[in-house]
Amino acid sequence: MGNVDQNGKIPNNVDLAGDKRLQRALEHWLPLYMEWWNDMGPAGFQTNDIYLRTAVSVEAGGWANFDYVKMPEYRWGIFMTPTESENSIGFGDHLGKPVWQEIPGEYRGNLRRIIVTQADTEPASVEQQRFLGTIAPSLYDMRNLFQVNVEEGRHLWAMVYLLFRFFGKDGRDEAEELLCRRSGDEDKPRILNAFNEACDHWLSFFCFTHFTDRDGKFQLASLAESGFEPLARTCKFMLTEEAHHLFVGESGLDRIIKRSAELTRETDGDPISAGGISLEMIQRSINYWFTFSLDLFGGEISSNAANFFGEGLKGRFKEHSRYEDHVMKDGIKIIPQVVDGSVVEEEVPYRNAINEVLRDEYIDDCQRALRKWNRTLEKAGLETRLTLPSRRFHRHQGLYSDHSFDPEGNVITKDRYEANSGRWLLNSDDNDYLVSIMNQVIEPGKMANWISAPARGINGQPLEFEYVRL
Amino acid sequence: MEPISFQVDSSRYRHWEVNKDGQRMRIHMSVDPAFPLREGYDLKLNSYDLGVDIELADIVRRLRFEHPEITSLVISSSHEQVFCSGANIHMLGISSHSWKVNFCKFTNETRCELEDWAAQADVRSICAVTGPCAGGGYELALACDEIWLIDDGNSAVSLPETPLLGVLPGTGGLTRLVDKRKVRRDRADVFCTLAEGFKGKRALEWGLVDTVAPRSRFDDQLKQHLDQIEADRPGRLERKGISLGPIEVSEVDGVRSSSTLSVAYKAEQRTAEITIDVPPVADAPTTLEQIHEAGDCFWPLRFTRELEDALLDLRVNRNGIGLALIKTTGNLDDIQGWDQVLVENKGDWFVDQILHLMSHVIQRLERTSCSFFALIEQGSCFGGSMLEIALACDRIYILDEQGVEVQRSKMNEGLLPMTTDITRCQCRLLGEPNLLEQTMGNYNRLDASSAEKFGLVTEALDEFDYEDMVPVAIEERVSLSPDSLTGMEANLRFAGPENLKSKVFGRLSAWQNWIFIRPNATGPNGALTLYGRPERPDFAWDRV
C-alpha cells in the first residue's frame, strides 16, 4: 500500500490491482456512479473543459495537479494518507492498543452507520448545487463550484471504498442506496436535513460551503482520529480537499460582504436599489445555514456519541494536541437545558455530551470567520456588524428543538417565533430576489455586480484566466 | 410510593391523540416527555412507560365498547423524528425487578387485548410506521393485523434489545415474529441481533412488514386500503356505542370497595378477601334495548370492569399480599339469571364484547402473581360465570353442608376460554376425559360431594374440618416462598396445549424476567444499567 496506481481505471493508493474482488465491485459501481453524475451532477457543463485540480499523489504538495478536464472524465480516485508508523488507538476504552486494520465485529454496525451517514452528505451537496453553474457570478466562481462538486464526488468514492472493502454485501447495498437517495426528494431524501434544504442561489451556496462543509471538516477531523485506521487515513486525506471548500465559502461570503458594504455606502443604505445584497439578508442567511449546520452534530446528550467515543471509533477535534485526558470516563460537561420555561445549566456525563464538545469547536471556528467579515465591514467604514445566532435558535434536532428561541437564545413563545422568523431567517422573498439578481457572468475576469473580485486567481493564474472554456 | 391508578379517560390522555373519522379510528402516539409516571426519566422520542400504556389500554377498552361502528384502527405517530423508540430504557434501568415485571406483564396484556379485540370485533388494525420503529414500538406494530412501513431510506423496524441492551424484546416481539408472522427462524435470528434493523425493501422481503410505500404515496395507498376495509364491513353504522364511566372506588379500614365487590386486605396475614355481591336478577334488563340502555351500569359489565380494576390494584399496589380468597354472596338463581341474559343475547355486539371482556379479565386473574383460593360457603353463588372464576383459582374449598351448591352452565363450556383457548373444565380434567364428558351439559345444582366427584372442587369439607383446615391451608400458603409460588402456579395453571399468547406469557416473559435479574443486564456493569451512560457493559461470558 502507499504507491499511487494511476494506470488502472480507478487511480488509487490502496492496491486495488491486488484485490480483484474489490476491483470488480468498484468497476461494477463505476457506471452506476457515472449515471448518477450525469443525472444529478452540474447541469449543462458536462462537456466543457474546466480548470480543475486532480489528486495524483498523496504526498504533500503533490496531490493537487491542475489542468483542463471535462468533469465526467475527472479521475475519481481512492486515496488515503500514508501510514506514519505503528499506530495505537488514541482515545476511549481501547486507548493505547494497536489500531484496527479490519473492523472489530462488535463495532461493525456502528461503523457502518458512521460511514453511511458521512457518505450520504457527499452526493447530496452535489445535487443541491446542481443548477448553480447557470447563474455563476464569474468563471472563477463557476470553476470553484465545479471543483467542489468533483471533490464531493471523490469523497463519495472514498467512503464507498470503505463500504466495499469492509462491509461485504451490506456495504454493496448501502453503496447503491447512496446513489438512489436524492436531496430534497419527498420519497428518498438524504439522511441529514441540512442536505435536503434548497441551495438555489450563490448566497446560499457560499453559506453552505462555509457553514455546512465546515461541519464536514469537524466530522472528518474527529473520524480521522478513529481507531479503525482505514477510516482515519481516508478522512485525513479528505480534509485536505475539504479545506478548499471552506475557502470557497468563507472568501465568497467575504466578497459579497465587501461588495454589499460598498453598495450600502454608495446608495445611502439601500444596496438593493443598486442590485446588490443587503447586510440584513446576509445576516438572515447566516442565521439560516449556521443553525441547520448545528443540527448536523447530533443531540446534545447522546448515548450513541458516548459509545462511538468509548469504542474508539470517533474522537474529538485534534484529540492529541488539544486534550490531555483521552478516556474521559468520569468527566462532566455543563449543558444548558430548558426547565419549566427557562434555561438552566445541567451537568451531563462528558462522554454523553461529546457532540456538544465538537459543536463548541465548530462554533469557535465560525466565530473566527465572523470576526474576519466584520473587519471587512469595519474597513468599509460601516457600523453594522454580523453576528452568529445562539446555538439554541432555529434548531430541528436535539434538546432545543422542542422549544422556541430568539436569535439571542432566550426562550420565547411559538407565536412570537413564528411572527419574527421572516425577519430572522432567509425567507422566500429573499430567495426570489437573490435568484432574480443572479445572472450568469462568463466574460473572463468579470464579476457580477453583487460580489467583489477575489484577491487572486487559482494556482497562480490571473483573474482573467479562462477557468471554464464555454 | 403513591399507588398507581389504572383509570383514565380520553379527556386526560397525555400521550395519545385519538381521531375518529366516520368508521375509521386513527390514534397517534405522541408521548409527552415531561410526564413520566414516576420521577427520574424523560419520555423522549416517543418512548413509553406504564403511564403511556395505561392510556393505550384505555383506548383499546373504549374502542371495544364506545366505538362498535368502526372498521379499522390505524396506529401512527405524531413525533417528527421517530415512530416509537420502545419502552423507556432509563425507566427500566432505575426500576425495581417487580416493577419491570409488572410493567412488561401489563404491556403484554394490552397488546394481547388489542389483538383479541381486533379479531373479535372484526376491525382491521394497521400500524402505519412512518419513522424509525424500535423495540417495543415494533412489538406494538407486531400486535396489529398489518404493518405498513414508509420507504424513505430512513425508517426501519428493529428489535435492538439483544445487541444494545442485553435483554429481550419481551413484549411479545420474539414470539410474534416467528409464531404470528412466521418469519423464518434464521432470518429472525439475524434481525434480532442487528441494532439498526431493516428498512423498506429488505423488511418487506423478510416478512417483517406487510406493505411498503414511498412518502408521496403512503397516505393515498393507505386510504384506498381503508376504503376497501370499510366496504367489506357494511352495516355497522347503526351500532351505538356504550360510554364507559369512571369506576368509583373507596377504601375504608383496609377494605377497598366498589359497587359490585369488595377487597378486604389483611396486611399482617398477607391475604386479601375478595367478595363478589351478585344482585337479584329481578333487576336485570331483559330486552336488548334495555341492556344497551343500561350501558356501563349493566351489572355483568360493571362487575367485570371492577374486578379487573381490583386485580390490577392487587398486582401493582399490594406487592406484599400473597393469597387472595374469593367469595361470592347471592343466590345461584340470580347468577344463572344474569348469565342467561348474556347467553340469550349472544350475537349482539355489546353482549359479545362483555363476554370477551369477561374472558380477558378472568385470564388476567390467572396471570396474576398471587395465589387464589375460592371459598364456597353458605350464601355463596358459584354458578356459571362465578364458578368459572372459582375454576380459575389455584384451589377450591367447599363447605359440605346442606344448601351449599355449585352449578355449571353454558358459561363453563367455551364462552369464557382460558389464555390457551380451551375451557377451564377441559384444562382441569385433562387426565379424566370420562369425567369431562359427564360434566358437559350437566347444569344441575351440585352439592359439595357431587362437585368433588365431578372434579370441580379441590376438597369438600364438613363444618368442623372446614373450620380447621381452611385457616391452616391459608397460613401454610402464605408461609411459602413467594417466588417459588409464582413459578409453581404459572406452571400448574395452564395444562394442555400452548398458543401464541401462552408462549408470550409463559416462555418469553419468563426468560425476560430471568435476564432482568442477571448481572449481564442489571448488574453494575450490565448492559441495561449502563445504557445511555458513558461506560460500556462488561459481560460474564459463561453460558448458563
Outline the structure in words.
The complex is a heterodimer of chains A (470) and B (544). Chain A has a single domain, classed as Ribonucleotide Reductase, subunit A (Orthogonal Bundle). Chain A is 47% helix and 7% strand. In chain A, strand 3 and strand 4 form a beta hairpin. In chain A, helix 4 packs parallel to helix 6 and helix 5 packs parallel to helix 9. By secondary structure, chain A is mainly alpha-helical. A three-stranded antiparallel sheet of chain A has the order 2-1-7. The longest helix of chain B has 24 residues. Chain B has two domains: 222 residues, 2-enoyl-CoA Hydratase, Chain A, domain 1 (Alpha-Beta Complex); 242 residues, 2-enoyl-CoA Hydratase, Chain A, domain 1 (Alpha-Beta Complex), CATH 3.90.226.10. In chain B, helix 3 runs antiparallel to helix 20, helix 4 runs parallel beside helix 6 and helix 11 runs parallel beside helix 13. The model of chain B has no long low-confidence stretch (mean pLDDT 95). Chain B is built from 22 helices and 21 strands. Chain B is an alpha/beta fold. In chain B, a hairpin with a 3-residue loop joins strand 13 and strand 14. In chain B, the strands form five sheets. In chain B, strands 12-13-14-15-16-17-18-21 form an eight-stranded mixed sheet, sandwiched between helices. Helix content of chain B is 43%, strand content 16%. The chains are: A mainly alpha (470), B alpha/beta (544).
